[in-house]
Amino acid sequence: MGLVVQKYGGSSVADAEGIKRVAKRIVEAKKNGNQVVVVVSAMGDTTDELIDLAEQVSPIPAGRELDMLLTAGERISMALLAMAIKNLGHEAQSFTGSQAGVITDSVHNKARIIDVTPGRIRTALDEGNICIVAGFQGVSQDKKDITTLGRGGSDTTAVALAAALDAEVCEIYTDVDGVFTADPRVVKKARKIDWISFEDMLELASSGSKVLLHRCVEYARRYNIPIHVRSSFSGLQGTWVSSEPVVRKTQQQGETKVEQAIISGVAHDTSEAKITVVGVPDKPGEAASIFRAIADAEINIDMVVQNVSAASTGLTDISFTLPKSEGRKAIDALEKAKTAIGFDSLRYDDQIGKISLVGAGMKTNPGVTADFFTALSDAGVNIELISTSEIRISVVTRKDDVPEAVRAVHTAFGLDSESDEAVVYGGTGR
């Protein structure tokens, strides 16, 4: 008997009919001889609605109490799903994150998993139950407070449980048929990827692809847990994310390995802002002081560019990107350190977007960079920042130019599908 961990997103359990449809799929997996553990998100936009409600009561809700509030959404989903499964004649038990043994650090609203001790889950499985676990949440190791894992936390919960239970696969059910070469909401001719490596998926996730979050993929790579991304609205084969290419069976050729493409996909992100530190003395230690102030404020940054200093003044400008939600905090941190650093002023811009081209094949294929910039030029897109790795090229441009830029690059690299358009089954994208 194999053990399968399944995760269902908010759009999959958005209403009673959705919950009953998901329950039937879970029971089917059980009937196929598997032990089944299910991680579930809050229904539809419940989490966003709870955040809105909290902000109406308090402009800056206390982190501990906000976590206590937000975890209610997943508890509602898990209980209703367990009821639906029992109505189909199968035994199911629901567990909160803390009951499932998800132990985290003490950082509220974006806690990280330290350990998973799924003793109660194993016992319930041995008794023949289907286990339903509330995603996105855990309990802090020191204070035993309820914590939440931040956006995409349910995916991370699922992979962490799969690793702790030594599952055969972690199935992530969402509102699209798998991982696509671009966001199907932006590129209608986006093509579904059959298999993608952990490394390429990590780059796509960190560059803005929202079908899987970066922490989830990193966890899966660390413990070598294969992920199968598929839709809960259809029975189609999805996308496999793993260290080795999957073997696909065909009637004509028998078994063949799915090869990795030169370019895996185009990702975009409009949730970042850009800060430019103007008039920085061009001498050793200045950049370190700037980014130490940012690090001390517990802010993650993405792209960094330093201009060549002006010979007449000996001053330079340093620009970097970061999440919009951290913009105010970053500005405040730098203003406090202004005297010590000695810069002239700060410029803040939240009307930017990032476009990234990802693919392990670009390491050995000359001309990819030239083709990328040519496609952007032909689309009339101006570039503000550039960042590269071995398997990724990212640029920052105006936010309004992002959709056209993504479509232009997608077409330029032959990623457009010749068949049916990509289908988005549900979800508001909020």
General description of the model:
The relative contact order is 0.12. Helix content is 32%, strand content 26%. The model has no long low-confidence stretch (mean pLDDT 91). It has 430 residues and is an alpha/beta fold.
Detail the poorly predicted runs.
none
Strand order of the largest sheet: 3-6-2-1-9-11-12-10
Q: Tell me about the biggest sheet?
A: 8 strands, mixed
What structural class should be given to the helix and strand makeup?
Answer: alpha/beta
Strand elements, count: 22
How much strand content do the residues show? Answer: 25-35%
Mean of the pLDDT scores?
A: 91
Number of helices: 12
Shape: globular
Question: End-to-end distance, in Å?
Answer: 39 Å
What is the C-alpha radius of gyration, as a whole number of Å? Answer: 23 Å
